[in-house]
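User: Second chain of the day. Same drill as before.
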Amino acid sequence: GGICHPDEDRTFTIRELKRLSSLPDDFRLTGTFNKRAERIGRMNPAKMVEAVARSLYEKVLARC
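Assistant: Same format as last time:
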C-alpha cells in the first residue's frame, strides 16, 4: 500500500500517520490498523484546509 516509510523498511505507525495528517497525538481511533490507517488517509489534514481557506480568503474574498 501507500503507507510504507520512505527511508526505512517498515510501514508508518498510526502515531506517525496522525502527525502527517495534523491530528493531535491524543486523537482516538478504533479498529484494526488497516481501518485506522484508511480513515486517516481519507481525512483532509486540518493544516492543509486552513492554508487553502486562508489563500482563498486573501486572493478572492478579501478583494471583493
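Helices lie at 14-20, 33-42, 46-59.

User: Great, on to the next one.
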